[in-house]
Design a protein that fits this description.
By secondary structure, this protein is of the alpha+beta class. Helices cover 44% and strands 25% of the residues. The chain contains 26 helices and 27 strands. It has an 8-stranded mixed beta barrel, surrounded by 6 helices. A 5-stranded antiparallel beta sheet has the order 2-1-7-6-5.
Length: 711
């Protein structure tokens, strides 16, 4: 091809015009190829026509509609697929492109009859979009299968009819509401429950149909869901049906959204569970209440006692119960007419309910006994007085068929924490009190009661602990731990002891259970920490800043909900360096609940204290759990240290695998000390190392020997 312009020598005007036309056609096809690549994948049948109504573009969807290949249509007439249809296109007087399709009968319109490759005919909706191109017009036809749309509409209608049929036949209430809480769909079942025709329910709220009392809550829930203030859920709803029967429904609610994500409707499905609910409530009543008297039964009563004890523990108050025995009920029942015993029990229940206070709770405790959970007892004496009043009320004579019958009633009272800290212990104490009352009434010598004696001892101990805290009468003892490398004191365990009248000075192992009963675990834990850290402060003043103080926790203290906060507060107050405070936690306690134990270990570690696993090897430790604990030191149980070398060696091997420093406890001889050192123990503690001593005596030894102990 020559590069010369139109005025070049040797090129005539006719040749120049032909070349321009060829360039225009080439440009057209190149442009249409680009268009085809863009619109080809679109879900739209597209046909491109030049000004002579020849097909210059057919995308994939159109080819599928008609069954042709690209080569079947390219540069062919429009009549190949729309027989008899003419295209009138061009530029109007102002240069604006126009295009219109003319049917064989000369009419115009969007619907055209197309011929498929297999010879069949189908109706299509055809829209013409002319575009100016160069000196001419290209017309794009957007083609939609009218038949397919019709078939789609019919399929949707069939689906909707099927859905309506299924919904109408469901043995459940099915409905939908709009954003304003008005019904837009309601099935026949729900309309029957409401007692109105379906048509009358549409456009109304539940309150409009059932009344404000029954419908307001349902409407409020639906409106909140429609406003996007809730999620799909299931709930129980109660309201009467058209016949006035109270019905219970298990209702599932969900939201239906538009394409833009906005909530359009609230959809509800409700299943009648009235009979199931009735059976459940009946079973629950049988499980909870005594059939003869209507009073709560023994299991329910014991659950209420457990709740009362838990509340008393939290509030540091007391809780009390009374048990009343009808001592001669069985004898009267055997000698009297049939049904007499049941009659007397019912009458006794009525009298007892009239005799108790407003906050007291009554239960039928057994065949011939009742229980009363006292609302607000203030003392043991008050509980015992209430028991005597109850026994007197049920012991007055009863009339039946012209005869009088007198029940012999005995009562026994028990108070938390003086008589026990568990419901079972309180019940035992009340039974013992009844036996004592029965012995006195029969004028016989009361039986020896070791349980009662033990409870009395614990009561005295609890009272003494309270006074010791109030008057600061605890004493501290120090038990040294040494590094086996050079016998230098590496840590010192601080043990808080308590002076008793009969047993002298006792340690935490002897008084902690009583402290828990009295609700004093936290106060004693705080006292033990503060006393220990007072000693540690003195050691720092002596230049022994690296000497750690250790405090051993008992099981009740380990599970205090604010233990970590208590440790953290004291660490901050005393400005302790990291590692200055060791918290000794017995292995058995830590492994009661491994996940909880791990959490508490981590919290103590995060507060700047050092958790140490105490009595290692005495319990059953999970090795997988042991590796998760944030500890670097363990203290071997005395039973491990005092056993043979194989046991101690196995414990040391395990400790080395985890990288723990090890303290051997209970060292009583030079031989035990040498064995511990030979097997790789890092530290030692026991009578052979040092006896427990008062803080002043311990400080004097440290000052005299420069931080060393003479063994």
């Amino acid at each position: 091809m020559s590069d010369s312009g139109p005025d070049s020598p040797g090129e005539s005007p006719g040749e120049h015009q032909a070349q321009a036309q060829r360039l225009s056609i080439a440009d057209l096809y190149q442009a249409l190829e680009v268009v085809n690549r863009v619109v080809g994948p679109l879900p739209l049948a597209l046909l491109g026509l030049d000004q002579e109504a020849r097909i210059v573009l057919a995308n994939n969807r159109l080819l599928r509609f008609f069954g042709f290949k690209q080569t079947d249509l390219y540069r062919k007439s429009l009549n190949r697929i729309f027989p008899g249809v003419k295209l009138d296109s061009g530029l109007d007087a102002v240069g604006k492109p126009y295009a219109k399709l003319i049917r064989p009968d000369g009419s115009q319109g969007d619907e055209q009859v197309g011929r498929l490759r297999d010879g069949g005919n189908r109706s299509f909706q055809v829209m013409a979009y002319p575009q100016a191109f160069g000196h001419g017009v290209v017309t794009f036809l957007a083609i939609r299968d009218v038949g397919e749309e019709k078939r789609t509409r019919e399929a949707l209608k069939e689906r909707d009819d099927l859905v309506r049929s299924v919904i109408a036949g469901l043995p459940a209430m099915v409905s939908a509401k709009d954003k304003h809480g008005r019904y837009v769909i309601i099935n026949d079942y729900q309309a029957d429950v409401f007692g109105i025709p379906v048509g009358e329910a549409i456009g109304r709220t539940t309150s409009d149909i059932l009344g404000e009392e029954a419908g307001a809550e349902i409407d409020n829930v639906d409106m909140r869901l429609a406003a996007g203030k809730g999620m799909s859920f299931s709930t129980e709803e109660r309201y009467p049906d058209a016949e006035g029967r109270d019905r219970v429904w298990l209702t599932t609610k969900s939201t239906l959204k538009q394409r833009d994500g906005e909530i359009d409707k609230v959809f509800s499905v409700s299943i009648d569970i009235s009979e199931k609910k009735m059976l459940e409530e009946k079973a629950e009543a049988m499980d909870t209440f005594d059939a003869l008297t209507g009073l709560p039964n023994r299991p329910f009563f014991m659950r209420r006692v457990k709740d009362a004890v838990s509340q008393a523990k939290r509030s540091k108050t007391i809780a009390g119960l009374v048990v009343i025995d009808l001592d001669n009920l069985a004898e009267i029942g055997r000698s009297g007419p049939e049904g007499l015993a049941d009659y007397l029990v019912r009458r006794a229940a009525i009298r007892l309910c009239a005799a108790v206070g407003e906050e007291d709770e009554v239960a039928r405790f057994g065949h011939d006994s009742f229980g009363v959970l006292l609302g607000r007892p203030s003392s043991t004496e008050e509980a015992e007085a209430a028991g005597r009043k109850f026994a007197e009320a049920v012991g007055r004579p009863y009339s039946h068929d012209g005869n009088e019958y007198a029940l012999t009633a005995f009562s026994g009272a028990a108070i938390y924490p003086d008589d026990g800290v568990e419901p079972r212990e309180l019940l035992e104490a009340a039974d013992h009190a009844i036996n004592r009352a029965r012995s006195v009434a029969r004028n016989v010598e009361p039986f020896s009661d070791t349980i009662a004696a033990e409870r009395k001892r614990r009561k005295v101990l609890r009272s003494g602990l309270r006074k010791a805290l109030e008057q600061d009468r605890f004493q501290n003892e120090i038990v040294a731990e040494v590094a086996l490398e050079d016998m230098t004191v590496s840590a010192a365990e601080s043990v808080l002891k308590f002076q008793t009248a009969k047993r002298g000075l006792i340690g935490p192992d002897d008084y902690m259970s009583a402290a828990e009963e009295a609700g004093l675990s936290e106060a004693i834990a705080e006292k033990a920490l503060r006393v220990a850290l007072e000693s540690a402060a003195g050691w720092r003043d002596m230049g022994l800043a690296d000497l750690a103080v250790a405090v051993r926790l008992a099981e009740p203290q380990f599970h205090l909900p604010n233990l970590a906060d208590l440790v953290g507060d004291i660490v901050v107050e005393q400005n302790l360096p990291i590692g200055a405070l060791e918290i000794l936690i017995p292995e058995a306690v830590a492994m009661m609940d491994p996940d909880l134990g791990l959490s508490i270990f981590e919290q103590i570690h995060d507060q700047g204290a050092v958790p140490v696993l105490d009595d290692f090897g005495a319990g059953q430790t999970s090795l997988g759990h042991l590796g998760r604990l944030p500890i670097g030191k363990v203290r071997l149980a005395e039973s491990v240290v005092t056993g043979d070398a194989k046991i101690l060696g196995a414990a040391m091997l395990l400790a080395r695998e985890f990288g723990f420093k090890v303290t051997a406890k209970g060292i009583r001889s030079g031989e035990m000390l040498r064995m511990a050192a030979d097997l790789g123990c890092h530290f030692a503690q026991g009578p052979m190392i040092a006896q427990p001593s008062a803080p002043a005596a311990f400080d004097a030894i440290l000052q005299k020997n420069g931080g060393r102990l003479t063994a």
